[in-house]
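Q: What does the assembly look like in three dimensions?
Context provided by user:
Components: two
Sequences:
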Amino acid sequence: MMFNYLPEDMVVEILSRVPAVSLARLRSTSKIWNALIKDGRLAKKHSANAPRHSMALVLIDHRVYLVRSNLREIHNNVAPFVSVTCHFSLKERLSKHFSTEVDIRDVFHCDGLLLCTTKDYRLVVWNPCSGETRWIQPRDSYKKDDCYALGRSSCNKYKILRQELLINPSQESYVYNIVRGDFLINNNQERYEYEIYDFTSNSWRGVGVSTGLFNPNITTGMSVNGIIYWFDITEQFLLSFDFSTERFGSESLPEDDSHLALSVTRQGKQLCMLSTHSSYVTETNVNLWIATKSSENTEAMSWSKFPILRGGVGLRYRYHFREGVSFFAYQVKEKIVVVSCHRPNRHSKNIIHIAGHGKFIELDHHGAKPKHEFSPTPLLLVYVPSLVQIQHGI
Amino acid sequence: MSSSKKSSDGKSSEIEEAVASLTMPFNKILLTSSDGESFEIDEAVARKFQIIAHMIEDDCAGKAIPIDNVTGDILSKIIEYAKKHVVEPDEDEDEEAKKKLDSWDAKFVEKLDLETIFKIILAANYLNFEGLLGFASQTVADYIKDKTPEEVREIFNIENDFTPEEEEAIRKENAWTFNG
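A: Here is the predicted structure of the complete assembly.
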């Protein structure tokens, strides 16, 4: 097929309708196409026109991999297959001719952007489709207890929230609690200080301090529609930060269940939660809760329950569904399937299991596995590829 | 003579428009392609092309409008599409009609080769016919989304201006986007 001349804006019109992953593949077509795929003009149209697809990534031994799976045929009793072979390479250029692969400690996803903490505690934002990376300088220095999350304000500006743990108490005897909105006597040694990083001004700005009682790690949280959600320390509440209002919030969670982990469904637009409930000591029920907000303005979040596993007898369910688990949920013919991931142990390097349709399958997956039982806890996360630009947002 | 029925309960304005067009005097517009082919179409169809709609609003559309950038074969295809899409069915209100129209659209492009579709894209852009521009662009997008860079270079007649080293570097970076 030959066509002699198609002007650039017609090419943009066409490419803005091609899924992000396909465009990532087509970057090597020509220099102009490579530039277009990174270009702001295509990114804006692309975000309006292109279909979104959900994929899954897993972080194993400091490397990010694509999770390929065939879950569609589970209801037909076809054995599910999970493969972890495609490795996402994040390179850092050290000199003109030498670049090295970066070891990744943690990943936080928002709108196709990956906020990564490196093994040596530095911070980088990365779009694997466009190939764009942006290294972030800290306000003073990186600390190993720092936690980060990525979100978006209502004017489509991306921002990073940093949560820094301060061990030594200040001279003040009262501390303002940003979640409860009142002053508390500071009995705790721990305080969390929050800062926002703005990409356009390349600077950090403080947004408040809170006592340690409520606020553990935002890195295990989720970003939904730009807002960040994470569990408080008691796991009775869902804490949130809205980058538009720059306010913290809290939502109560369904009682009776132990809430383990958060994820997203519907191409990142809906928040969901994995929980367990034990009516007897040795019996485990696993539930998926999907959140709906009644409207944009009201604060209340309601939860719909989807049982995934009922009456799982035996310690292995306790072992698999506990702290440190990460997951994503998949809909197969009106039924939900949960793919989850846990720490390796000395007996097995299998870390992935599938639950749903009345089945529980421990998978010996194909591809990369943790090297040994002391490898860092693997992390499974949802990835929605996009061409979102780091510098200016959408 | 059929009477003009204007419903007062706020029914869709497309129905009102359709009914009104039955009772208004027919306005025909003549479009002439760059190679001298002429097409007489209803004003309602011509209005799908925003440049003509603007000319009509500004009262500078005569009865005959030359379309210098588009040949007759392409213009006839565009008019064929515009006629089918004069009234766009609402997805929520009339699912059946939407399905029928989608099916017609699919058959419409099925018969066209890629070069014709490119020409249609250019012409739809020139005439400012947003609906067809979007549809034709989507058709090409669907066609290329599973193709390799080599195949796409051939389709768009693009020269590979990367050095082998540069191309290798990008391939390494996006290895995860290739299946298998």
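Follow-up: The domain at 54-383 of chain A is CATH 2.120.10 (Neuraminidase).
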